[in-house]
Amino acid sequence: MTATTAPPLRLDASLLPEDEVDALLNGSVEGIVPAVVVDVEGGGAVKCLQGLLSCDIETSGERGFLYGAVLTRFGMILADCWVARGGDDVRLVVPPSGAEPLMEVLRRSLPPRLAKATQRSKVAVVRVAGPRAAATTEGAGLEPPEPGAVTTLPVAHGRLDLARATDAAPFTLQLSLPSDAVSLWRERLRGSGAREGSSNLFDLARVLAGWPALGHEIDEKTLPQEVRFDEIGGVSYTKGCYVGQETVARVHFRGHPNRHLEGLLFEREPTTHSAVLAEGNDVGRVTAQVWLGSKHRWLGLAVLRREVDPGSSLVASGVGATVVPLPFAPEII
């Protein structure tokens, strides 16, 4: 596997104030995250998306909330997304770089008489993370749903969807709401004890959770199983047919992925290069590097060849590193 020349995501101490990190690890943080909201509406929305997404939205229930992806016919990830059902309609929250690939698939695949996809330019996404995220949200006047579920309430100029992720996710709650209502609800969250968090802080949360991101761990040649979709609930092996299923099922039932996403503990500050070497051989690429000031250590993520196991010693980004399982263990962070 040839190492990419693209530099890893890099977060250093100057971008991660220690009080923000402490709030993420011990309290709660809230912040707007870069995302595009797409609503798929119509009597056939759920059935149509069931044939396009890697996750099983039919059995998630009428108020289900889960993670998944749109794949190519060869099983490669085009765009990952969070999926919230509202009865027969579905709201998709996708990274900005995945919006156009997702919309292209929807334009090409959705029969107009059954479902219609609309990109919502005036809907924003706020996430709340940290061990006190649910308590903070409740204190702000929003009753958190059960994990894997979404509730909806009317607000000025639209609706607020409050969705709760599973414990493995890098955030606890997600609010999608009209842009002009964002300031009010963010103020309520901060008034209930949440610390305002930057986008860099949510990147840190993602890295610590071992969660893949489009443009970093995920590229146009990535299979779901290579970036922990099995562990994080992003792929179903029991639902009916969907685009890319044949490859995904073959890897699961008859083979194994050639690469896997793992954590790294760097011995010292890494360079900005992404190469990973074992005994002089190219075995992968570093995708993220973060400085955790409270522990005075550099952590990272890397997509590695399958023969590289946790505990292995490597040269990653030009310095010595040890491979560790994901998510990062509490004693590490």
Q: Report helical residue fraction.
A: 10-25%
Uncertain spans: none
Shape: globular
**Structural class label:** alpha+beta
What's the arrangement of strands in the largest beta sheet? 13-16-15-14-17-18
Q: What is the averaged pLDDT score?
A: 94
Share in β-strands = 25-35%
Number of helical stretches of at least 4 residues: 8
Number of strands: 18
What is the CA-CA span between the terminal residues?
A: 30 Å
What oligomeric state is this?
single chain
**Biggest beta-sheet profile:** 6 strands, antiparallel, barrel
How would you sum up this structure, described in words?
The protein is 21% helix and 34% strand. The chain has helices at residues 18-26, 45-50, 96-109, 133-139, 182-191, 199-209, 229-232, 245-254; strands at residues 9-11, 29-32, 36-41, 65-71, 77-86, 89-94, 116-120, 123-129, 149-155, 158-164, 173-178, 195-196, 259-266, 275-278, 281-292, 297-305, 313-316, 319-324. The strands form 3 sheets. It has a 6-stranded antiparallel barrel with strand order 13-16-15-14-17-18. β10 (158-164) and β11 form a beta hairpin. The two termini are 30 Å apart.
Compile the SSE list and pairings.
Layout (H helix, E strand, L loop, with lengths): L8 E3 L6 H9 L2 E4 L3 E6 L3 H6 L14 E7 L5 E10 L2 E6 L1 H14 L6 E5 L2 E7 L3 H7 L9 E7 L2 E7 L8 E6 L3 H10 L3 E2 L2 H11 L19 H4 L12 H10 L4 E8 L8 E4 L2 E12 L4 E9 L7 E4 L2 E6 L9
Parallel strand pairs: 1-15, 2-12
Antiparallel strand pairs: 2-8, 3-6, 3-7, 4-5, 5-6, 8-11, 9-10, 10-11, 13-16, 13-18, 14-15, 14-17, 15-16, 17-18
